[in-house]
Amino acid sequence: MSLRQILQSYDVSRRDFMKYCTALSATLALPPAFAPQIAEALENTDNRPSVIWMEFQSCSGDSESLLRSGRPKVGDLILDVLSVDYMEVIMAAAGHLAEEAKHSTMERYKGKYLLIIEGAIPTNEDGIDCCIAGDTALNHLKKAAEGAAAIIAVGNCASFGGIPAGHPNPTEAKGVADIVSGKPIINLPGCPMNCDNLTALVVHYLVFGSLPAVDKHLRPKFAYGKRIHDNCERRAHFDAGQYTEKWGDEGHRQGWCLYKVGCKGTQSFHNCPTLRWNDGLSWPVMAGHGCVGCSEPGFMDTMAPFYRRLPAIPGFGV
Amino acid sequence: MAERIVVDPITRIEGHLRIEAKVENGKIVDAWSSGTMFRGIEKILQGRDPRDAWYITQRFCGVCTTVHSIASIRAVENALGIQIPYNAELIRNIIMGSQAVQDHIIHFYHLHALDWVDITSALKADPKKTAALQQSISDWKYSSEDYFKSVQDRIAAFASTGRLGPFANAYWGHSAYKLPPEANLMATAHYLQALELQKEIIKTHAVLGSKNPHPQTFLVGGMSIPIDPNSQNAINADKIAMILEYNKLAKEFVEKVYIPDVLAVAPFYLDWAGIGAGHKNYMSYGEYPESQKGYPNDLWLPGGIIKGGDLSNVIEVDQAKIAEDCAHSWYMDKSSKHPYDGQSDKNYTGPMPPYDYLDVDKDYSFVKAPRYDGEPMEVGPLSRMLIAYAKGHKEVVPVVDAVLGKLGAGPAALFSTLGRTAARAIETLVTSQRNEKWIMALAANIKAGDYQIHSGEKWEPATWPANAKGYGWHEAPRGALGHWIVIENGAIKNYQAVVPSTWNAGPMDKGDVHGPYEQSLIGTPIADPDKPLEILRTIHSFDPCLACAIHVYDEKGELRSKVKVL
To answer: Cα–Cα distance between B451 and B439 in angstroms, integer?
Structure first.
């Protein structure tokens, strides 16, 4: 059953479906003319990519983020767009039967499955700090990487080490790209990753049969190509020298720039301001809290303390 | 004949949990719970700005994604003696309440339901009879024969691909599944409905806190979402209307689907009201401050301790009596320590991977064993509801009595696997109803002209004393959560979190007394040791969250006393 058929069963019209495909092409930074190609990819019967989603030193925040998907709706995404063959948070199987499901997927879809990694990988003491089914995350990752078509690191931890890699990095936690080589790796950092970026990445893969262009940190340009500061809805206030000075003051209530209360948007590349979160409802700056730079390598240490204003960012009246 | 069984990974939880159990004559006679991942976040916190701690500890867990933020800011506020504005208290209540409701719905439908519901049997259901069943339990809108036919067709089409994704390789067809096909089809439909609903109702967090998971809105001293009815960049009438609507959606689903489902399914599994009790010690810190006096005054849900299932005697909690024991955990220091003094240097002495069994006679978990006055305590919705019930709580007592009445059982039936699951549903109902009151209280306070969201005092570290220490408690969805912080010269000197799943998932203590998971598994029947569905039922009834439970650190380069190779 294709996504199109599923949507039909929900009385979603062809027109709405095409509108959805056009919106997706925008997320992917493609011209609207690509909408028919996207529609075709989504209409194919059971071309679902097989997904193995593994969690290591994680908080499951990225798994939860996946469950907030609105475009497509979460049920369609995990049942009809992807074939989620291993994902601990939602899978019905447990114990050795769960492991068997993973191994048979790795055999059957060798060279074809997408490996999604959430959480950092501890390398201290041969990786003893994270064990699943009696073996280390390090070994699980290396084995699963061998037959993967591509690896997607979701969240800052899997991308760059993230939270557990914060100073003094007690477990010598690392991101995927520091461990695996010889495979295409895409990083979707963020704390957590924004599910709409993962969806867009998967659609790109289905439509073009290839992975999107990435920056030097292996982040897709369609999502991390622009500085938050440059797309920020409060940019005009920065340029006008209008700043929030204290929490709850007049400037804060009127949506003025959060630079002086610690915003790291000038140092961060992510599409938060345009994509936003939870079906495009909001994002940190919109809700009155500064950006903390969670999509950058070296986060948290390069961004903390979160409430200290960055030095030497030129602007009026700073 | 005794047999050792292992379930690793325990799926449909947060984090990495392993259960080993000894089965004899079809029953579990001994059990061991092991957490197998840690990150060292408490070590990472040392030396940092205490105002950043909420953000970092929030990453203990992305499922209960608000709870550590709350405990952390309360700990710093307690250490520095900061009183937060009433608006901030109410916003926190709304965020905590909507978290609890959404988290419990996800738990019941997506993490726990498949222990009781056999999706494959739903294919055999008669949609007409399913519609009749649905209509008999509530007036929920999705109840037509056509609707259930479309759900069944969808499952059939999915199954026909031969690629079952997250439903592959489960214990389908197991003899412990008791529901008729129609109930299985109805529950499967609700699984799909709840999947879409949970992401809608949690938008309250996006409105008040920018996003979910990991809302970014907490501040030591208040909240960062401004209030101004005449601004589009602040909480205004529009945003109040939005969160009221999300809460209404949640409440309707709980009243018309979640509670009726529990009442419809429970009669098929009443034997589980006599399985999985454990120690019958229950603890809650209490939650939801409702008056202008602020936390921890005038809590809607009371705190307390019940020992040995004695509902006639609720003891007050004294934080000085909390200690963590490492007798069977992979740490250097084996003595019991109060969280202010907690220093956890790792000492892994387990088998080298890949391994088949842990060395359960010695150390076998990264989770410590917290004890209250030397005794293990179960925490979570069951503890909260029992304590509220025992204290005669106005909203909780009638719902508990009604549920017990429908099931024809007395309060003792709540000391069980089924009791935990029912208590969680009861809590979801009363919390979704109460949340509306907090939203309206916020609206009323704004109407009265109060727009303050941050105390302003003591924001700058220069205003702090050189030395301070404090603790912050919170009743998280999974139970009693506490953070303890020691501040020196504006920076974190020591930080310890004793979290719900540490209480519940901890290993044996120095007296070889089992932790709550372990104790509750002993005596559980196992029909097929190769498919231990029964273990999942009891363990899932606690709603484990293991990344939370292990957050302690390893001091690099220390001696490893022994490595055992299997």
So the answer is: 15
The one-letter amino acid code at B121 reads S
B326 assigned to active site: no
How is residue B356 annotated by DSSP?
S
Distance in Å, alpha carbon of B313 to nearest chain A alpha carbon: 37
Percent of chain B with pLDDT over 90: 91
Nearest C-alpha neighbor of B211 from the set A292, A22, A297, A227: A292
User: E strand or H helix at B147, and its extent?
Assistant: helix B145-160
Contact A164, A121 (CB under 8 A): no
Q: Which of B212, B216, B453 sits opposite A278 (nearest CB)?
A: B212
Q: Is A62 on the interface with B (CB under 8 A)?
A: yes
Any idea what the Cα angle at residue A76 is, between residues A70 and A78, rounded to 5°?
95
**Contact criterion met (CB < 8 Å) for B233 and A286:** yes
pLDDT of residue A311: 84
Q: Which domains does chain B have, with CATH numbers?
A: 2-549 (1.10.645.10)
Q: What is the 3-state secondary structure (H, E, C) of A146-192?
A: HCEEEEEEEHHHHHHCCCCCCCCCCCCEECHHHCCCCCCEEEECCCC
B454 is catalytic: no
A124 contacts on B by Cβ (under 8 Å): 554, 556
Cα→Cα distances A196→A84, B119, B207, B363, B449, Å: 17, 29, 18, 43, 39
- pTM of the entire predicted model: 0.94
- The residues facing B305 across adjacent strands are B283, B315
Instruction: Answer whether A268's CB lies under 8 Å from A262's CB.
Output: no
**Which of B68, B74, B384, B483 is labelled catalytic?**
B68
For every residue of B211-242, DSSP letters joined together read: -SSS---EETTEESS-B-TT-TTSB-HHHHHH
Q: Contact at 8 Å (CB) between B483 and B88? A: no
Minimum distance, in Å, between the CA of residue B211 and any CA atom of chain A = 6
CA-to-CA distance for B490 and B463, rounded, in angstroms? 9
Distance CA B63, CA A133 (A): 22
Note whether B452 and B87 are within 8 A (CB): yes
Closest residue in A to B54 (Cα–Cα): A306
Query: pLDDT tens digit string along B235-249?
Result: 999 999 999 999 999
Mean pLDDT of chain B: 94
Q: Which of residues 230-259 of A touch B (CB under 8 A)?
A: 246-248, 252-255
Count of alpha carbons within 13 Å of A202, Cβ hemisphere only? 27
Q: Of B551, B543, B536, which is closest to residue B366 (Cα–Cα)? A: B551
Answer whether A84 sits within 8 Å of B165, measured CB to CB. Answer: yes
Domains annotated for chain A, with CATH where assigned, are 3-223 (3.40.50.700), 226-318 (4.10.480.10)
Interchain CB distance below 8 Å, B36 and A75: no
Query: By three-state DSSP, how is residue B331 classified?
Result: strand
Q: For residue B466, what pLDDT is reported?
A: 98
Contacts of A77 in chain B (CB under 8 A): none
Closest chain B C-alpha to A119 CA, distance in angstroms: 10
Inform me whether the pLDDT recorded for A1 exceeds 70. no
Contact check, Cβ <8 Å, B8/A64: no
**Predicted confidence band of residue B562 (pLDDT cuts 50, 70, 90):** very low
Q: Which residues in chain A touch residue B38, judged by CB atoms under 8 angstroms apart? A: 129-130, 171
> Over the stretch A207-252, which tens digit does the pLDDT of each residue have?
888 999 999 999 999 999 999 999 999 999 999 999 999 999 999 9
> Which token pair is A56?
């290591």
The 10s digit of each residue's pLDDT in B184-216 is: 999 999 999 999 999 999 999 999 999 999 999
Give the tens place of pLDDT for each residue, B497-524.
999 999 999 999 999 999 999 999 999 9
**What distance in Å separates residue B104's CA from the closest CA in chain A?**
14
Length of chain B equals 566
